[in-house]
Amino acid sequence: MNAVEIKNLSKNFGAKQAVCGLNMTVPMGAIYGFIGENGSGKSTTEKMICGLIPTSGGSIKLYGKDHTDDAIRAKLGVLIEAPGCFPSLTVWDNMMLQATNLSIPHAEKEVIKILKTVRMEGAAGNKYKNCSLGMKQRVGIAMALLGNPTLLVLDEPLNGLDADGMRIMREVFTDIIKDGTRSIIVSSHLLGELQKVATHYGIIRHGKMIVEMTADELDASCRTFLALQTQNMDQAKLLLGTKFARVEEDEAGYLRVYDQTTPEEVVAFLYENGICVTEIKTDKIGLEEYYIDLMKGGK
Ligand SMILES: Nc1ncnc2c1ncn2[C@@H]1O[C@H](COP(=O)(O)OP(=O)(O)OP(=O)(O)O)[C@@H](O)[C@H]1O
Ligand SMILES: [Mg+2]
Question: Are residues 179 and 227 in the same domain?
């Protein structure tokens, strides 16, 4: 059974189709990176999953049941936009207040455990308004974790974080799913932010899912190529173009050969035609580059 199964989902705001025919599958235990440019429909989809706004069509199943089922909704933890915290109260008091509102049993023990998970145990006495952005985001996740949800839906929790804030957040995500009972959907407009932490990816564009894949599949899609330099780049480019299907010059001034070939073959071919290779290496296009390629409509 999957944590989330969405079929043919749509959402219209008046004449605006924000989501159109979207399919999505989030396996149990996944950190699902939901990636798309600004305005592509990530938040709208997440709000529909959480039942915050009605759908205009299609179906959303959570753990095999309709997402409007009350028992299923109780399994959701949500952070969409800012958490509802009181700025002048401490992190601890905010958490305890919410725990009381939700009638969480053994609230103190639970809050201690959750603050540890989000790496906030040392900052529980800070007033919320004095927390850094990264800390505030983690308090939001802590709030979402109250009630022991099995599915967390987090809208752009990495937005605006510095490298250290991102690293801590990645650790938090990994910690949250480590016992295999929880899944997380994390949206982002940058694929690179989720690199190394997401186990699955879904890429949305203009309200449609354009591709879903596992982290391994995504990694494999990032093609390898040969990058080389010669003393006569223009001639080398022309020549390589007569033998290989895809030859391009990159921003760093290297010629890239994307075909299945070996450095030996390329060096020998150029040498036979009077061109000396001064440098050659095997490389792989990065996730960001792959994503930009996808967004342009290529693959
Ligand atoms: N309440 C609304 N009324 C009208 N249009 C809306 C509403 N909410 C979203 N939209 C439109 O739907 C589209 C998708 O918006 P959405 O917020 O889901 O995108 P997003 O992928 O979350 O973008 P971002 O990365 O900027 O957060 C946008 O064109 C947006 O303007
Ligand atoms: Mg959004």
Answer: no
The whole domain housing 241 covers 222-295
Q: Which residues contact 162 (CB under 8 A, 6 or more apart)?
A: 134
Question: pLDDT tens for residues 46-86?
Answer: 999 999 999 999 999 999 999 999 999 889 999 998 788 99
Residues 72 and 204 reside in one and the same domain: yes
Beta bridge partners of 192: none
State which of 9, 42, 158, 159 you would mutate to test the pocket of ligand 1, scoring each by most atoms of that ligand within 8 A of its C-beta: 42
231 & 138 share domain: no
Best of 19, 22, 40, 52 for a ligand 1 pocket test (most atoms within 8 Å of beta carbon): 40
152 pLDDT higher than 50: yes
Specify burial of residue 54 (Cβ count, 10 A radius: 0-12, 13-18, 19+). Answer: exposed
Distance 42 CA to ligand 2 centre (A): 5
How far, in Å, from the CA of 49 to the mean position of ligand 2?
14
Cα–Cα distances in Å, from 299 out to 34, 102, 222, 272? 18, 46, 9, 33
What does the block give as tokens for 285? 């296009």
Predicted TM-score of the model (pTM): 0.83
167 and 107 share a domain? yes
- Atom number, ligand 1, closest to the C-alpha of residue 41: 18
Q: Do 35 and 111 belong to one domain?
A: yes
Which residue has the CA at smallest separation from atom 2 of ligand 1?
13
